[in-house]
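Catalogue entry: protein

Sequence with per-residue tokens
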Amino acid sequence: MATKKKAAKKKSKKKTSKKVSKIVKDAPAEHYFILANGQPVKNVKELADTLEHIADDVFNHHVTPDKNDFANWIHHIFEETDLAQELAGTKNKHHTRIVLYKHIVRKLK
């Protein structure tokens, strides 16, 4: 009986760590997101952190009424379809950061 519990616990930990690592794991170097100011972004959490400090014109280069480069990057590189769809509806830095951080927190649960 104890063996089954240990096996179930190990399986649960692996599943959680896989979710977490996908969120914070760096994209391959050739798939880093390069901001309009030349700054590379390696993963989803780093994008959320970076948005606090980038200039509005840099953000507005990547997010317009017709496109959201961040949503596209997350969809194609990290295969986080739900997050990408939610981001596609964001149009300002603050809301984008909230969506990213909420997604990270949900994945950590």
Q: What stands out?
A: Strands lie at 33-34, 40-41. The two ends are 26 Å apart (CA to CA).
